[in-house]
């Protein structure tokens, strides 16, 4: 009986991860944004996994360009917007990326290869932005929880600390729906 229970638990836990493997696992040699920005020619065609927040989406006839403000990634691939940003980069995708879906300020992670850099004018300044040819793009859902503990932990009540929550009652929580 214990073996069957263990097998069922393993099956349920393995089904919990719905991220593409290219997003969840970094490349063997993970090139940082700063390394690539300093010498883009040295890392041409190297695999990368970068992420950040969408700034702009441009659709051309045969491809789409997404301009992203770079942030370092968590171990599982989500951008850490609580850290300082590192600069900007471009994602080039052969697919049409709808600007209604890829909206400004949405968190994004891309896995692909570095394809060089492109000169872009931002305000009155010209910048050379690294460009990634996308293999996998993942949009992250907005965090609905914002509390004392950080990402991913539900907020039970107004106080941000479980024992002082109005929904905490002697070791059990009352249901709280948003």
Explain this structure:
The chain has 178 residues and is mainly beta. It has a domain at 19-139: OB fold (Dihydrolipoamide Acetyltransferase, E2P) (Beta Barrel). Helices cover 13% and strands 35% of the residues. It has three helices and seven strands. The strands form two sheets. A five-stranded mixed barrel has the order 1-2-3-5-4. Strand 4 and strand 5 (125-139) form a beta hairpin. Residues 145-162 have low confidence and may be disordered.
Q: Helices, strands, pairings?
A:
Elements: H1 2-14, H2 21-24, H3 33-38, E1 47-59, E2 64-71, E3 87-93, E4 107-122, E5 125-139, E6 168-169, E7 172-173
Parallel strand pairs: 3-5
Antiparallel strand pairs: 1-2, 1-4, 2-3, 4-5, 6-7
How many E strands?
7
Helix-strand category: mainly beta
N-end to C-end Cα span: 38 Å
- In CATH, the architecture of the domain at 19-139 is Beta Barrel
Q: Provide the β-strand percentage band.
A: 35-45%
Tally of helical runs = 3
CATH superfamily of the domain at 19-139: Nucleic acid-binding proteins
The gross shape turns out to be globular
Helix content: 10-25%
């Amino acid at each position: 009986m214990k073996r069957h229970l263990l097998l069922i638990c393993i099956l349920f836990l393995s089904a919990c991860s719905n991220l593409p493997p290219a997003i969840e696992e970094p490349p063997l040699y993970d090139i940082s944004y700063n390394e690539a920005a300093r010498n883009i020619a040295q890392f041409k065609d190297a695999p990368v996994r970068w992420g950040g927040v969408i700034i702009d989406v441009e659709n051309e006839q045969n491809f789409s360009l997404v301009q992203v403000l770079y942030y370092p990634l968590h171990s599982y691939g989500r951008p850490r917007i609580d850290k300082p940003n590192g600069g900007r980069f471009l994602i080039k995708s052969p697919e049409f990326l709808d600007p209604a879906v890829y909206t400004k300020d949405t968190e994004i992670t891309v896995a692909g290869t570095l394809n060089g850099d492109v000169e872009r004018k931002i305000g009155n300044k010209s910048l050379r932005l690294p460009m990634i040819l996308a293999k996998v793009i993942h949009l992250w859902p907005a965090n609905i929880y914002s509390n004392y503990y950080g990402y991913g932990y539900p907020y039970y009540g107004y106080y941000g600390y479980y024992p002082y929550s109005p929904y905490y009652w002697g070791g059990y929580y009352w249901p709280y729906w948003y």
